[in-house]
Design brief:
alpha+beta; 16 helices; 12 strands; 9-stranded antiparallel beta sheet; single chain
Length: 523
């Protein structure tokens, strides 16, 4: 009943200490996790997919300012229970830091910033600011893992559309050949940029124009589906423009210009149609007034020490994950690694040199080794990229590490391959590569590649499995030494190449493991 007697001046006084406390806590989080925030900004700068994130902080500030009328009558009531999600965010950041998963560390930091509000100001204030706080997560550069899937969908839909219109298509992975020329579905054609931008803007549009949850969810769902469909149409239009003009238009810079113009028209149409069902502003004002009155009757004033006390406790909790990083900061530069393989591996003899050609893309490895072995059935090239003291820009598992890059090599197919070894089966990630030379599949160079992650002992073929193993080993205090093993056979027949690689693994995998264990011991 005390809140019923609060005057406007007393309400302003009740807000003064909590606002100072939450401001200090937010500033402390930004300072403690400065490296994480700086890494996010660096991604915004280098990746066009996440350039839109620059506008997220000012939009969040504007959305909170719009709520000032609803917040004014509320009584800030700190919540001790909010320490639980705050601690969970710290653990998430710590685990992400152990295995250098930027999405985990950056998401953890975003959760810390969001949970600071209910911790110091209370859940009623947080619920009033639910959307502005949730909107902050659009600043986290997450979702790039969808790019390969979107590229695959775009290529398949494009091939089907061209064939439906009577144009013959030869497809090999993301590369297409039609009578008028060759086309490739590259990362810029995936539509990931359209998807991210439309999802953010569509969510904001739905929040500002609709009051019902159902209408908002429907519009957000449309904003997720529409850019994917629009990107398929855009890709088809671009190829058809090039085909019908004998590749005079839509093949250079105008390719991108036409794409963005089409995308802009589609999005404007989406918002124009969506605005027809916008709810009137007075409904929101009435709803907000009811919420304010209920909150005014229910809230109890908090003691002056509570906001500062909880902010101080949260600061201690958030500082704990940084202690391990500060302790390990003296060993940032990786020490040298001695990595070698013998000239003779069973029936396989090393050649004097490796012919130039394909090489997997694993940047900033601590050590690399490439050897070409000749044996029964054909040659096998061994590529090993070894990592120690992994960190941002130099880690085993990341979206920038891949089988191929550049215009010459392309992935014709991907999958898994199993090899039997000492009564157990080891699963490798497999890719069949070919070159962009020529227009026919027959007679073109082909390369069958197997990949496996060695994680200081355990092995894994998947990125997620590798990250989980690395996290568990990090929790146990084990070194983060790890390596990517690539085996390549340049044999035109895929089945024959698989047999050669399986034979090589069966005879020599134990030697590869011993070589990696010796490299791990070279400290």
């Amino acid at each position: 009943m005390m809140s019923l007697t609060l005057t406007p001046s007393r309400l302003r006084d009740a807000w003064r200490v909590p606002l100072v406390a939450v401001s200090l806590l937010l500033l402390a989080i930004l300072l403690l996790y400065w490296d994480t925030g700086a890494a996010m900004v660096h991604i915004w700068i280098r990746s066009e997919t996440f350039t839109h994130a620059f506008v997220v902080p000012p939009i969040v500030a504007w959305l909170i300012w719009r709520k000032r009328g609803e917040l004014a009558p509320l009584q800030p009531t700190p919540s001790l229970w909010a320490l639980l999600p705050m601690a969970g965010a710290a653990v998430l950041w710590w685990l992400g830091d152990l295995v250098n998963v930027a999405a985990a560390t950056q998401s953890g930091m975003a959760v810390m910033l969001v949970v600071s509000v209910p911790l110091v100001l209370g859940w009623r204030v947080a619920s009033t600011l639910a959307f502005p706080l949730a909107f902050l997560f659009f600043a986290v550069p997450f979702g790039e893992f969808l790019t390969p899937t979107l590229m695959h969908w775009t290529a398949d839909v494009l091939v089907a559309s061209l064939r439906l219109t009577g144009i013959p298509v030869y497809q090999e992975g993301q590369h297409l050949v039609i009578p008028s020329g060759r086309w490739a579905v590259v990362e810029a054609c995936s539509g990931i940029r359209y998807l991210m931008a439309t999802f953010m803007v569509g969510s904001l549009f739905a929040y500002l124009n609709y009051h019902g949850t159902r209408k908002r969810l429907i519009f957000v769902a449309v904003s997720l589906v529409l850019p994917v469909l629009a990107n398929w149409v855009r890709a088809y239009i671009i190829v058809m423009l090039g085909h019908l003009s004998d590749n005079q238009i839509a093949t250079g810079v105008d390719h991108l210009i036409y794409g963005w113009i089409f995308f802009g028209v589609v999005i404007l149409a989406l918002f124009f149609i969506g605005a027809r069902w916008a709810d009137p502003d007075d409904a929101e004002a009435t709803e907000a007034a009811a919420v304010q009155q209920a909150a005014l009757r229910a809230d109890r004033p908090a003691a002056a020490w509570q906001p500062m006390g909880l902010a101080a406790i949260a600061l201690v909790v958030l500082a704990l994950p940084n202690l391990g990083r500060l302790q390990a900061s003296a060993e940032v530069a990786p020490r040298s690694v001695q990595l070698s393989l013998p000239d003779q591996l069973g029936r396989w003899q090393a050649l004097p040199q490796v012919a130039p050609g394909w090489e997997p893309v694993f940047s900033n490895a601590t050590a690399k080794l490439v050897r070409d072995y000749r044996g029964p059935g054909g040659d096998v090239v061994v590529h090993i990229a070894y990592f120690r003291n992994q960190r941002t820009g130099a880690k085993l598992v990341t979206s920038t590490n891949r089988f191929v890059t550049g215009p010459r090599w392309l992935i014709a197919s991907e999958g898994l391959a199993a090899s039997r070894l000492d009564g157990k089966s080891i699963t490798w990630r497999r890719a069949t590569l070919t070159t962009t030379d020529g227009t026919e599949g027959a007679g073109r160079p082909r390369l069958t590649v197997w990949r496996l992650y060695w994680l200081g002992g355990p092995v894994a073929h998947g990125d997620i499995d590798a990250k989980l193993i690395q996290a568990w080993r990090g929790v146990q205090g084990e070194p983060d030494d790890a390596a990517a093993i690539h085996l390549a056979a340049a044999i035109p027949d895929d089945a024959a190449a698989q047999q050669v690689l399986a034979a090589f693994v069966r005879e020599n995998f134990a030697m590869l493991e011993r070589a990696l264990a010796a490299a791990r011991a070279s400290r």
